[in-house]
Design a protein that fits this description.
Blueprint: H1 2-31, H2 46-79
Amino acid sequence: MKFVFTPFSVLLGLLAGIVGQKIFEKVWSLVDEEEPPSPEHRKFSWPKLIAALLVEGAIFRLVKGLTDHGARRAFAGATGAWPGEEAPERE
């Protein structure tokens, strides 16, 4: 069943990236009026770059994780098969 789930996972991952970017832009606009610095920029403030990368990474990971888990739950509800591991093994 994993091969059936993979295309949905890829598509939802792309959508989660777009949503994550929009959320980051809104959050950053609350922090600073200027656009967030990027590693590609020649001149930037190190503290601002670090803050932007930390916030952006946290938002992307959160949105991606919630989207992935939601997609797996929906897939399992529709097919009766969980696309992945049930739970990590305990030692």
